[in-house]
Amino acid sequence: MGLPVSRHQAKEGELAILEPVLSVGDIEAGRIAARTELPQVPLRPGSLDRFRVQPDDLLVSCRGTVLKVALVSENEASLLVSSNLIVARPGTRILPSVLLALFRSSAWQGQMRLRARSSSGLVQLTVKDIENLPVPVPPLALQQELAKLIEAEQEHHQAALRVAALRRDLVDGMVAELLLSAVGKAEPHESENG
After folding, report:
1. Is residue 51 part of a domain?
2. CA 20 to 30 Å from 174, out of 117, 139, 163, 189?
3. Is 153 exposed, middle or buried (0-12, 13-18, 19+ CB in 10 A)?
4. Based on the domain organization, do 129 and 35 belong to the same domain?
5. Number of folded domains in the chain?
6. What is the pLDDT of residue 15?
7. Does residue 162 lie in a domain region?
8. CA 167, 171, 176, 177 torsion: positive or negative?
9. CATH number, residue 24
10. Burial 118-152 (b: 16+ CB within 10 A, else e)
11. 144 within some domain
């Protein structure tokens, strides 16, 4: 489990260190927000190392309406995670990207929802809820092939998102330009003629 921020947050007048802390909102489409975009939280100095993530850790949201999952890269290493995230650290028998795909799969998402507590549509998972999920461990050669496929799909997905954003910006720009130029050429209203 991640850092219970409220218990470690410095009170006014206390010695504090500013640290970026990852939360569920910092995960979007399987990606983690850039370190520079994360909120800086004033924390009491102390032993925070057990709440820091390592490369290839998986972050799983444990509170909210949607089960979000993301893989920690070198860029996010040593960041603190809040208590609304569970950190799953793959062992040596399964590749992190394969475990990520398993967590994202509809079958495992369904299993996690069945184990989760829910109040008014909000999912609440615990470490114990996901600890006992059966993890298939295919041969390493198959995992490596799956990892290549997963990486290619992620790159394609990110490229498609970038293209969609560019297309929207282009259309929005064209529409705005056409509408604004049409306003400049429009006949004056009666009230303007007097």
Report:
1. yes
2. 189
3. exposed
4. yes
5. 2
6. 79
7. yes
8. positive
9. 3.90.220.20
10. eeeeebebeeebbeeeeeeeeeeeebeebbeebee
11. yes
Give the SS3 label for residue 100: helix
Q: Which domain holds residue 180?
A: 138-186
Asked if residue 78 and residue 4 are part of one domain, the reply reads yes
In a shared domain, residues 86 and 156:
no
Q: Are 67 and 60 in contact (CB under 8 A)?
A: yes
Closest-CA residue to 19 (of 54, 56, 55, 45) = 45
The residues facing 21 across adjacent strands are 80
What does the pLDDT look like over 119-164, one tens digit per residue? 666 778 888 888 878 888 889 898 899 889 888 888 888 888 889 9
pLDDT per residue as tens digits for the range 28-84: 877 888 888 888 888 877 777 888 889 999 998 887 767 888 999 998 888 888 888
Burial 49-84 (b: 16+ CB within 10 A, else e): eebbbeebbbbbbbbeeebbbbbbeeebeebbbbbb
**Whether the predicted model's global pTM rises above the 0.85 cut:** no
